[in-house]
Amino acid sequence: MTIKVTENLGLNRVHPTTQKVSQFQVKDHQVTIINDTHNAELLAVKNFIKFAQNYPTKADVKKVFIAGRVINSRNDPYKAQLEVVNLLNSAGFEKYYLYGPEFDMVIPAAKQPAYGGYYTTPKQIVHTIAQALNQDLVIFIKADSHEDSIERVQATLKKELAYDSSAASRFAMTTGLQNHQAYTRCGVGRLLVILQCLQKIASGQLRLTAPVTIQNALLKDHSINKVGLKVGERYTVYDLVTLAIVFAAPDVLINLAEYSYGSNQKAFSGLKTFAKKLGLSADTVHNITGRPTRRAQKTYLADLEKIGDAFIKLPNEVLSLLSTQRRQLNGKLYQKKTQLFKTGKIIGSVFLDGREHAGLYFWLNQQGKHRVAFINSPHPAYVDCLVENVIDSGVTQRNETYPVTSLNLTNPIVNILADTYFGEDYTRKRQRRGIEDGLQKYGYAYSFNKIQSFFEAKHYNVLNFEAVFASGASPLDAVKPFVLDANADKTLAEFKRLGFNLAMLGNNHANDYGSTALVDTMAKFKQASMQTIGAGRNQLESRRVIELMYDGRRYAIFNGYWYRNPAYNLFNFYAKTDAAGVNCLDTMMATDIRRYKQLHPNAKVIVSAHWGTDYGEIHNGQRETAERLTLAGADLIIGHGPHRLQPIEYYGQTPVLYSIGNGVFNNSGSFKQLKVPPYAAIVRLDLSQNQLYWCPIYADNSVTFWQPSFVSDVDFEQIRAINPAHFETVKLDGEINAVVIPF
Q: Is domain 172-389 annotated with CATH 3.30.160.390?
């Protein structure tokens, strides 16, 4: 419909604008959405901002504005988006949000307190609005529906806002983390199909070797999770049951259910009857597969616990089918995400959905068989971690008090150097090939010569130490591609000379020689008066936080390594309840950040994240982890691990430096072979102004002869352009080129 009030307010317009209005209730608050995603030329956007400013509301109603990119901005999109941001800064809205392409260019111009953040998906912006929903809202959306996904924001708000803003969406688990309000919007169809088949197998009504002829290929079902069963193909009951246990394939579940019950209609009716027999809540079965439907499905933790109890009653021989971890079909391998069975912690698992956001784990001890149910998991590794802790110690350790080391700084400067290793392992390999390098020719002091003045003794200096103090053979030599050892005496002598205060160990090399060497490495750093973070003698110690106090303000540094399956089940890298290892970004860190922010709401949380693939682009896993950490309260994320520069992006108001590349890391490098720009960056934080300085350096050792230096003015202009945002620049100390990033 066309809103006449715009004309009544006397506003200019390019042409009539179609606006969609909807109203709904969330937590006793009325939410009104006025969505104008018809025309987003600059004049239309400016008019709609005026319309929103003048829109009549009661005094206790918040106004929120969501702006998508300005279209038809000729040859200067930056200027058009900047004009909109400047208008929004002074428009008087409770919050405004920037959405989608081109608005990332002008993020530095957005001003607090009105600016609410930059987002790229409807779900992101809904999560953010849901967290702050405490009174009536009027949400104005202005964009062009043909340009990006902003067209779906209104529908997503209506569908998701009530759920996301309530306790229903929160994580819950049987042991220690009960939440009777929490539910997942998947049904239990998959679990009931599997359970019913296993019960029939146990009673002799079904044989694992019995043939099943595929009757339904689900041709009208476009799910990406179908495995491609074809009508007339023949499989055994074992084939289909174990595939259903491993992977949430709708074509497998439908054919298995129809075979077990006789027809689709009988299967659906039978599953509903089965759910009632188990005492499940009313909305757990609205289809056979358990996938979300138009009719809302709700599965509570208690529902899963009842299903788990039924599984436990199965004979061990039948229950053991839940231990199936992977299956192959038509040349494609399907496997579970959980890793606990591979390490011997559990005897089986089964999940509601393919993402493993809800499900059941089973384990065995002297007291018998046990089950634990969970829903709304943020990451498979998170549940693996909690369940492993329960099995090992009886508690999740989620709410245990992690150690905090607090330091008072008299100088506001904190310098951060990423991947740092003098390269003893690489040097030995070069020596065997007759290749000379900087360490052989000039020793340990050489590589820092051109950047050492950056790290003044009065500053707080931090590095990511990507090795371990050890020598000789490692237990990982045969299974891990790169195992890095370092000379403790020579390395520490150089670090002390340079004035480093903190070594971050949350990376993929700190445990290269096993837990004993890691503990010894931490002890040697302590003896050298350097603190460590990101690893510990046990999981709780690995979660240690360094808290910097300056001028009455708190800055907390968290450090960890992202979750990788081989690091968990092959290399045994992550710290456990009673075993040394590194801290994991994807398990307890979001919880730890959230708790820290609850205790210190005005503190700044800085995450040093070791993640990504060597010399690769930004990985989706990096973005997903950044999203979780930011929603938990991270104010700044500084990444490293890919050995190259990656662009600086934003999630909400949080700058995410996905990778600042190598520090002094004396490998041979693959910049030229992989056609990757040969740069890295050193980071400086000025706590007196809450500003970060991103200072590029030359990082290709084949060019620098293992001696990085700050880039020239000409190269700096090219390097800064990898970042979408138009940041201000300065020269530190009159000569070091730096991009300025407020945080």
A: no
